[in-house]
Amino acid sequence: MSTVKVNHKARKRAKATDKVATVLIVTFAMAIVAILIGLLGFILFRGLGHISWSFLTTVPQTMRAGGGIGPQLFNSLFLLFLTMLITVPLGLGAGIYMSEYAKPGKLTNFIRLVVEVLSSFPSIVIGLFGLLLIVNTFNLGFSLLSGALALTIFNLPLMVRITEQAFAGVPKEQKEAGLALGLSKWKIITSIMLPVAIPSLITGTILASGRVFGEAAALLFTAGMSTPPLDFSNWNPLSPRSPINPLRPAETLAVYIWKVNSEGIAPDATQIAAGASAVLVIMVLIFNLLARFLGRTLYRYMTASRRMN
């Protein structure tokens, strides 16, 4: 009798604990969603009214009202392209090596430790390192390429860790099936493991891209705080006025927002900063949606899920 009562009390206590834990988890989740919606709503409410085609395509004004963000918007997108062009292959290669080729041991553990330490470095430190090494020692000057290399240092640990975890998360049975069919290790990686890992890799790419869009501190010391007059009819990458010249200085949208907020003297500096912030948020949201759509399409195309649907 006493044993039945004890079991009944234990079940009631477990149910009560489960209810409390569920309420806490749901509360925390809703709080995060509310903070995110509030933040997005505040930025978009302040900035959407200032966005127009003229605002997106014209050059900024220092003293007069009515300036735009055209060059800064293009610089942000081009810098994202350059950074991901360097970061993704390096991150994928290093992550695949750490997951599939590196032998467990002190050396591998040390490399993982270095990657984790590097990922925790403040962006301002990465910027100063880029100023000393990339800008001055390599003599690349304040340029898009210097900024892309600094952001690669910033984002590479994230891509390596996510790639390693994505490949480590592939079911062991799928890898063993490839070995049983006599496939080479590289064939197993590219044909079996890579398609399964694609959703996680897309997530890592989105996270890295978001840091590129929003980064300002590291770019102050590498990409610079100015943009030369751009000629969008000149697509010679060696021309100083060409938009696609990677060796020209480039002020990105995040840097411009910081500069306008801190030292802007235009009469509508506050509205410009609010509009530019809204554009930056919208860019990140659109990029996330496009990247997720591309990831789902690639996953369906490269795996059997396409035939099952």
From TrEMBL:
It holds the Pfam family BPD_transp_1. It is a multi-pass membrane protein. The chain crosses the membrane at residues 20-45, 77-98, 110-134, 140-158, 192-213, 272-291. GO terms for biological process: phosphate ion transmembrane transport. Its main location: membrane. Keywords: Cell membrane, Membrane, Transmembrane, Transmembrane helix, Transport. GO terms for molecular function: phosphate transmembrane transporter activity. Residues 73-291 form the ABC transmembrane type-1 domain. This is Phosphate transport system permease protein PstA. The lineage of its organism: Bacteria, Bacillati, Bacillota, Bacilli, Bacillales. The gene is pstA.
